[in-house]
């Protein structure tokens, strides 16, 4: 009878220790989950802020200001427009070559 009581006592102690370990692991995982949710909320907030900043940076007024300030670009006006035309250089071989006519072969 004492053996059965000792075996049962040992089983109760082992199951109690196992239960404490499982509860500890459960609390640790819950804490980890809570931290992950907080990080997720923080990252979502930061993502929204970055999206707003991205839209702000891409406005046409900002692009024009950067083009003016950093690239020294300016608005096109007829007064500052230069038109470049291309004329083929005359070569000696092209000037000496006979021009074929339609009827002559």
UniProtKB/TrEMBL annotation:
Coiled coil: none
Bilayer disposition of the protein: Single-pass type II membrane protein
Entry superkingdom: Bacteria
Cellular compartment(s): Cell inner membrane; Cell membrane
Alphabetized InterPro entries for the sequence: Cell_div_FtsL
One Gene Ontology biological process: cell division
Keywords tagged on the record: Cell cycle, Cell division, Cell inner membrane, Cell membrane, Membrane, Transmembrane, Transmembrane helix
Quaternary context: Part of a complex composed of FtsB, FtsL and FtsQ.
Family: Belongs to the FtsL family.
General function of this protein: Essential cell division protein. May link together the upstream cell division proteins, which are predominantly cytoplasmic, with the downstream cell division proteins, which are predominantly periplasmic.
The protein's name in its UniProt record: Cell division protein FtsL
Gene name linked to the record: ftsL
